[in-house]
Write a structure and sequence with these properties.
Radius of gyration: 18 Å
Order of helices and strands: HHHHH
Largest sheet: none
Number of helices: 5
Distance between the termini: 13 Å
Number of strands: 0
Structural class: mainly alpha
Amino acid sequence: MCIRDRIDIFRFPSLRTKGICFSLIFFFINYLYLGPVLAVNSLGINANLGVILLSVSELVTYPFSFSVIEKLPRQKAGIVLFGISAFCTAILIFVEKPPDCDLCPEAIIELVLLCISRLCSATFYAILFLYVPESFP
């Protein structure tokens, strides 16, 4: 890849728009992907156990995403997965946990929502790494 190819991304408006949009998508999906790890500490359970549960939910998604990734419409699937992940993260704002909660239903709901968010964002990552190179000529 020569220097001229890299400069073309900034020279042409269509490539510039795609580049900016994909940069924002990567930023927000990183936020949704890494945010649950930080939120696990507030659940009232062992932080290591929470991270293991999030990692298992991510591990579940990879065999599924690798087997169906060629059949999925990448743009629509990405929008749906991003929406589900953002929705689950937004619901966490409204789940209020009592201060003396050790493993109450609210903490379990938070953990399930975090796992779903992590599962969707990990699948979106797998799709995004194929969709971005296909979008640029």
